[in-house]
Write a structure and sequence with these properties.
The chain is an alpha/beta fold. It has a single domain, classed as P-loop containing nucleotide triphosphate hydrolases (Rossmann fold, 3-Layer(aba) Sandwich). It contains ten helices and six strands. A six-stranded mixed β-sheet has the order 1-6-5-2-4-3, sandwiched between helices. Helix 1 runs parallel beside helix 10 and helix 2 packs across helix 10. The longest helix is centred in the first third of the chain and has 25 residues. Bound molecules: adenosine monophosphate and magnesium ion. The site of adenosine monophosphate has 9 residues, from helix 5.
Length: 266
């Protein structure tokens, strides 16, 4: 599938990656069938992940506003056991969070073994919004790419698989989605006038994303750029990658207690 997996140090030009791409998938119905299969398989694999209690999976979602982070979580996780998943949304840091290093709030939200954790935004905000708005001096955010790489390597070495997805939408698609929010009463709550100021900085954000992809895509935890104008395609690509990743862990149920075959229950 034409999801772009960034190679270590690879320069990315987001304007060259088509957000409308749907690869070999012809239409929404075809995607829906495949997505349903992936969701079912994910549920089976999650059950073993949880039982074995040996590996964790961390899924990081980043995107521009209205890029589809919430919708992705809703769709992809619709079949899994809620007991084995935890979603963390990272907002503007609190006073307390700001009085620590930028990874403090992130590290404590990393899923424990046996769990799937999803980050709705992440430590990457500290080299995205923070860079675009000069919230800290450049010398400070410049160092963060290396801190992030070291941090993620620690996670990988601790059996936390790190899957990072950028939901790639076009500026036009964002406009359509903002308009949809304004037109539908049940979506109005999602419209934040502040998002328009961020939209005006679109090109700065693209540059900040491109740097993050280039600098923070080690072979053990690369960025995956997912064409996301079509929600059905986005959900399919991401679910597919999650299934393949869990399959690759060679998960196994733990050995049962000995002598279970001789047990009699009155
Ligand atoms: P939302 O995801 O729509 O609820 O918005 C969350 C807001 O928090 C976004 O505008 C983010 O850019 C902002 N945010 C998240 N992390 C940080 C951070 N580390 N520093 C500054 N703003 C952040
Ligand atoms: Mg928002």
């Amino acid at each position: 599938m034409p999801m772009v997996t960034v190679k270590p140090g690879q320069k990315i030009n987001l304007s060259k990656i088509n957000p409308n791409d749907t690869g070999k998938i012809k239409n929404k119905n075809e995607a829906k069938t495949l997505l349903a299969q992936n969701i079912e398989r994910m549920a089976e694999l999650q059950n073993i992940l949880y039982a074995q209690n040996h590996h964790a999976l961390l899924i990081v979602l980043q995107a521009m506003d209205a890029g589809g982070k919430d919708g992705t979580i809703r769709s992809i996780m619709s079949g899994v056991n809620p007991q084995g998943v935890q979603v963390t949304s990272f907002k503007k840091p609190t006073e307390e969070e700001l009085s620590h290093d930028f990874l403090w709030r992130i590290h404590r939200a990393v899923p424990a073994r046996g769990m799937i954790g999803i980050f709705n935004r992440s430590h990457y905000e500290d080299v995205l919004v923070v860079r675009v708005h000069n919230l800290v001096p450049e010398a400070v955010w410049q160092q963060r790419y290396e801190h992030i790489n070291n941090f993620e390597r620690l996670l990988v070495d601790s059996r936390v698989t790190v899957l990072k997805f950028y939901l790639h939408i076009s500026k036009d698609e964002q406009k359509e989605r903002f308009l949809a929010r304004l037109e539908q009463p049940h979506k109005l709550w999602k419209f934040n006038p502040g998002d328009l100021a961020e939209r005006a900085l679109w090109d700065d954000y693209m540059a900040a994303f491109e740097t993050a992809f280039e600098k923070c895509s080690p072979a053990v935890a690369p960025w995956h750029i997912v064409p996301s104008n079509k929600k059905w395609y986005r959900n399919l690509v991401i679910s597919q990658k999650i299934v393949e990743t869990l399959e690759g862990l060679k998960l196994e149920y733990p050995a049962p207690y000995e002598g279970l075959d001789k047990i009699v229950i009155d």
